[in-house]
Amino acid sequence: xxxxxxxxxxxxxxxxxxxxxxxxxxxxxxxxxxxxxxxxxxxxxxxxxxxxxxxxxxxxxxxxxxxxxxxxxxxxxxxxxxxxxxxxxxxxxxxxxxxxxxxxxxxxxxxxxxxxxxxxxxxxxxxxxxxxxxxxxxxxxxxxxxxxxxxxxxxxxxxxxxxxxxxxxxxxxxxxxxxxxxxxxxxxxxxxxxxxxxxxxxxxxxxxxxxxxxxxxxxxxxxxxxxxxxxxxxxxxxxxxxxxxxxxxxxxxxxxxxxxxxxxxxxxxxxxxxxxxxxxx
Length: 281
Fold this sequence. Notes:
Layout: E1 12-15, E2 29-35, E3 39-43, E4 49-54, E5 57-60, E6 65-68, H1 72-89, E7 96-99, E8 104-108, E9 111-122, H2 125-131, E10 138-148, E11 157-158, H3 160-165, H4 171-193, E12 197-211, E13 214-220, E14 228-232, H5 242-245, H6 251-261, H7 270-273, E15 278-280
Antiparallel strand pairs: 1-2, 1-15, 2-3, 3-4, 4-8, 5-6, 7-8, 9-10, 9-12, 10-11, 12-13, 12-14
Helix pairs in contact: 1-6
C-alpha cells in the first residue's frame, strides 16, 4: 500500500508566509495532502517526508463544537516537539524529524493505522460517563482502550478482535502499539509529575514504515494539551482542551502554563503573530 493512501489527497497549492522562520520564502509553494481539525499536512521537501502544520482551530465532541484558541498551533508545535524528542531519546520511534519553524515540523510519511490508542490513569471524560464513576478517582491500574478513527462514525470504541478481524492492524502490530503506549505512559507520567502535573489520560496514533526491509511501527500525530488531560497536581485545575470542551475559559493561559512548566518559553506576542499558510487559487 502506498503510504500516502492514508491521507485524503486534495490538489491545492499553498504559499508559505515570509514571516515563517528558517529561511523558508513566501515564494515556496507546497501541495496540501490533508487537512484535519487541528493540523494540515503538506508534501515534504524529500520523498517520504511531510510538513505538519499546527492550526489554532480546535474542536470537541467529534467535531460538533468548534472554535479557535489564539496561538495554540505555535504552543502545540513546541510542546509536541519537546515530548516527541524526549521519547525518541529513550528509544521510542516517532515520526518527528525536526521542527521547521514556529508552526511546522518535518515528519516521516507513514501509513497511518486507523486506530486511536487511549491510555487512562485517572477517571475522567467518557470513562466516568460510561461506567458511572467519579471523575478524579485513580484507577487501580492503567487502562488501554482502542477507538476506530472515523469522525463519520463518532470514533467508536472497539476491541482487539475488531482491529484484527477488519485488518486495521495485525496481532503483532497491536502488541507493539500496546507495549509502546504503556512505555510512553510510564515516561510521560514521571515527566509531568516532576513539574507538578497529573497525566490523567491521553491518546496516541501510530503508523507503519518500511525501514531496511523491515516494517516498523512509529508514533505519529502529536502529544499536546489537545491530546492529553493534564491536571495541576495540587489543585486539579485543568490545563488542557477540557477548558474548551466545558467552557471554563482561560484556555490560552492553560496551554501556556504547560509550556512554561516544561521550560518552553515563547517571546511575548510570538504565539499570536505567526499566521498559517495562504491558499493560492
